[in-house]
Specification:
- The complex is a heterodimer of chains A (108) and B (115).
- Chain A is 0% helix and 45% strand.
- Chain A has 108 residues and is an all-beta fold.
- Chain B is built from no helices and eleven strands.
- In chain B, a hairpin with a 6-residue loop joins strand 5 and strand 6.
- Chain B has 115 residues and is an all-beta fold.
- Chain B is 0% helix and 54% strand.
- In chain B, 38% of the residues are buried.
- Classes of the chains: A mainly beta (108), B mainly beta (115).
- At the A-B interface, strand 3, strand 7 and strand 8 of A face strand 5 and strand 10 of B.
Chain lengths: 108, 115
């Protein structure tokens, strides 16, 4: 099955830009989705189809996808952005979604 | 609204049936899924079912033990879990799927498999 690789943790100073990567074989041909999960809460869709934002998600959240790496960028990071972030694609061979291992974002 | 129920403590080898009641969405239009999260771990996609229930897909670790189903008349999704193992311990989320992504999550129900 398709494998997605994320760094376990990313730290960034408040007000700076955080970048969280998601690696996968030729991931550029897939639509990548990103979820934010705060402690004790269900995940929330933050970015879909590589770079689109659902209503209610701030413009500070953006995504890109190229080659073997997709990236979630969060500009002007705030304390409230501290959370776990997961990338996800659809695996056509299994007809299931596949998640990356998750990245814990820490705001310094 | 998406609301799960049916979680709880069960012994290894036991069974449990999770339910997911939905409201405010056109249930019959969407694929639905169950996604789980073991304590302190990441997300795992468990099972999918298409709009009329004719297609069902499972992650390898639950094949032959779990069964996903839906009742479109009741706008409800189910997960029958048999032969439960300790490694099935997790929060189970009911998930509405659109174009390969989860665009709505329930709040989850905790399943604990322990003697």
């Amino acid at each position: 099955s398709y494998v997605l690789t994320q760094p376990p943790s990313v730290s960034v100073a408040r007000g700076q830009t955080a970048r969280i990567t998601c690696g996968g074989n030729n991931i550029v041909i897939k639509s990548v989705h990103w979820y934010q999960q705060k402690p004790g809460q269900a995940p929330v869709l933050a970015v879909y189809d590589d770079s689109d934002r659902p209503s209610g998600i701030p413009e500070r959240f953006s995504g890109s996808n190229s080659g073997n790496t997709a990236t979630l960028a969060i500009s002007r990071v705030e304390a409230g952005d501290e959370a776990d972030y997961y990338c996800q694609v659809w695996d056509t061979s299994s007809a299931l979604g596949v998640f990356g291992g998750g990245t814990k974002l820490t705001v310094l | 609204q998406v609301e799960e129920s049916g979680g709880g403590l069960v012994q290894p080898g036991g069974s449990l049936r999770l339910s997911c009641a939905t409201s405010g969405i056109t249930f019959t239009v969407y694929w639905m899924s169950w996604v789980r999260q073991a304590p302190g771990k990441g997300l795992e996609w468990v099972a999918n079912i298409n709009q009329d229930g004719s297609e069902k897909y499972y992650v390898d670790s639950v094949k032959g033990r779990f069964t996903i189903s839906r009742d479109n008349a009741k706008n409800s999704l189910y997960l029958q879990m048999n032969s439960l193992r300790a490694e099935d311990t997790a929060v189970y989320y009911c998930a509405k799927v659109t174009a390969g992504r989860v665009d709505y999550w329930g709040q989850g129900t905790l399943v604990t498999v322990s003697s």
